[in-house]
Amino acid sequence: MLTYRDLKLACLMSLSDNEIVAFVASSVLILFVSGLRFRHFQRSTFDRFIDVGAVFTCHQGKSRVRGMAAPPFEWALPFTAFTPDKLVQKFVSTVSQVAKNNGRMSS
To answer: Which bin fits 32, alpha (ψ -120 to 50), beta or left (φ > 0)?
Structure first.
């Protein structure tokens, strides 16, 4: 069970100067806030920012009957009061940087 203390600790860790610690903590917070299954999170890419948050696209939904994959779907990550300022923007920036650097955190 997630407690307030766990959430607060993840928020503090997401502000770490250590890129890897901050990225992992931010990922955990994003999973908490979005309510998304981890598997769909792995299959998602950033799409765009909107007034209330960010929109991502999961490129493969749940399997349907007869093993047919569901079509891609969009999900939103809201800016919330309990997460650190600019958490979503920082996360999107880090993911973009990792993609440009062939999976590495720093250039």
So the answer is: alpha
